[in-house]
Amino acid sequence: MSRSSIGWSMAWALLAALPAMAAEYYVSPAGDNGNAGSPAAPWRTIQYAITNAAVGPGDEIRVGEGLYVESVTNNSAASGKGRLTLKGGYDTNTWAWA
Fold it and tell me: What are the tens digits of pLDDT across the range 36-73?
């Protein structure tokens, strides 16, 4: 095996060992739980964001400003999802943190 092949093999092995990047999901009072949870198509409820199958360890749920009338239970650790971060106060037009 050549030196460059060994170098590339080691580089790929290191990259594979890195944890996956955390994802960001979005919730807005004007959203819909049938959406993708993206800035352009946010979810409607905070509870849906927490329990959504796509949300995983280390992910951040960004909650847009507004009124949410719901009960929220964060059982992400008990369900095996690990730690999730909920962060509120985002402007839902620009998704800048207010």
Answer: 999 999 999 999 998 887 788 889 999 999 999 999 98
Per-residue pLDDT averaged across 69-85, rounded? 78
Q: What tokens does 59 get?
A: 């992910």
97 class by beta-carbon count within 10 Å (0-12 exposed, 13-18 middle, 19+ buried): exposed
pTM of the complete model: 0.75
**Which secondary structure element, helix H or strand E, spans residue 26, and what is its range?**
strand 24-27
Q: What are the residues facing 26 on neighbouring strands?
A: 62
Is there a contact between 58 and 19 (Cβ–Cβ < 8 Å)?
Answer: yes
Pick from 51, 47, 45: nearest CA to 29: 45
4, 8, 10, 11 alpha-carbon torsion, rounded to 10°: 130
